[in-house]
Amino acid sequence: MAALVQGAFGGDLGQVVGMPVATGRTCGKTSDYQPSCAVGPAAPDVAYLWRAPSSDRYTFSTVNSNFDTVLEVRPYNNTTQSLGCNDDIGPGQQQSSLEIDLTSGQVVQVIVDSYGSKCGDYQLNIFNSGGNCPVCHTGLTGDPANAGKAPGASPRSGSCPREAPAMPRR
User: Fold this and answer.
1) If pLDDT is split at 50, 70 and 90, which confidence band does 169 have?
2) For a tag site, which of 25, 92, 123, 125 has the least CB within 10 Å?
3) What is the DSSP string of 86-152?
4) pTM of the predicted model, to two decimals?
5) Phi, psi torsion values for 132, nearest 5 degrees
C-alpha cells in the first residue's frame, strides 16, 4: 500500500487492535484535516492507516487522552468522505469514540484531531465491538446505563476481556 502523504502521518497500524494501538502528541504537528463534526480554527492532527481484520463493527476511541479530542474515520481511497466522526463521548467527557461497520481488509484513515486549536497527548484505541464486549467498556462507548458494571457485564458476550479505565474528568 502506498504511504499516506500528510505532514502528520502517524503510520500504518496494520490490523492491530487494542488499548492503545498508538500514542503520541499532536502539539507541533500540522493541521491537514478539518473534521466533519467539529468547527473552529485549524488544530494539529495526526492520521493513521488501519485495516479491518474481519467484517465486523469496530470501536475507535481516544479515551485516556489529555485534551479535547475529535476523532474521524475516513475511507483510505476517498479521504473527503467520513465513515464516522465524534467530538466528545458525552457531557463532560472530552475524549471521542465512534463505532463503524467495516468489511474484512477494508483500509481506513483514522484521524486524531482536536476541538479548537488545542493539542496534547493522545491515546488511540481500536477494538472489535461486534462480538467483543462493547457494552461493558463504558469508558469507550459512553453508555451511562452501564456505568459501574464489572467485567462480565456485557449482555452480548457474557464476558469482558478487560474493563476500560475510568474516563478522565475535568
Assistant:
1) very low
2) 92
3) ES-SBTTB-S-EEEEEE-TT-EEEEEEEESTT---EEEEEEEE-SSS-TTT-HHHH--GGGTTPPTT
4) 0.74
5) -125, 60
